[in-house]
Amino acid sequence: MCACTMHANLLGMGKPLQIRDVPEPVLETLRERAEERNMSLASYALEVLTRHAQSKTMSEVLAGPRLRKGRSLKDEDILELLASGRP
After folding, report:
1. Number of helices (H) and strands (E), helices first, in the chain?
2. Which of these, 11, 1, 84, 79, lies nearest to 46 by C-alpha position?
3. Are 39 and 47 in contact (CB under 8 A)?
4. Measured between alpha carbons, how far is 13 from 37 in angstroms, rounded to an integer?
5. Using CA atoms, how far apart are residues 22 and 70, in angstroms rounded to an integer?
6. Residue ranges of the alpha helices (H) in 12-55?
7. Which of 3, 6, 19, 27 has the CB geometry, 3.0–4.6 Å to 43, for a possible disulfide?
8. CA-CA distance, 35 to 42, in Å (whole number)?
9. Cα separation, 73 vs 14, whole angstroms
10. What pTM was estimated for this model as a whole?
11. Under-50 pLDDT residues of the chain
12. What is the dihedral of CA 11, 13, 16, 19, to 10 degrees?
């Protein structure tokens, strides 16, 4: 079973994704990185997309503390949270 199938099974999904018009330099970089890790291009791309989807956007990071605390954060509070690495 390939890594992409295992990831798909673990995440409870199985929908195909096709990306068209990928610039050649981007495609070549992805191929090289996949090869360095002994992965297929599809497996590597799925891993990259999965990792990206699991990370929070800046707006999600900044909205999270406001929602939990029930109050607006001051600039100093936001900078302190970002410095501490807490989402």
Report:
1. 5, 0
2. 11
3. yes
4. 24
5. 43
6. 24-36, 41-54
7. 3
8. 11
9. 40
10. 0.56
11. 1-3, 5-6
12. -40
What's the token pair of residue 20? 């068209």
Task: Name the helix (H) or strand (E) containing 6.
Answer: helix 3-11
pLDDT at 11: 56
Q: How far apart are CA 71 and CA 66, in angstroms?
A: 6
Q: Which amino acid is at 80?
A: E
| d(C-alpha 14, C-alpha 41), whole Å | 17
Q: What is the pLDDT of residue 65?
A: 59
**CB 65, CB 81: distance < 8 Å:** yes
Q: How far is the C-alpha of 1 from the C-alpha of 61, rounded, in Å?
A: 36
* 3-class secondary structure, 63: helix
d(CA 13, CA 81): 34
- Report d(CA 78, CA 70) in Å as an integer: 14
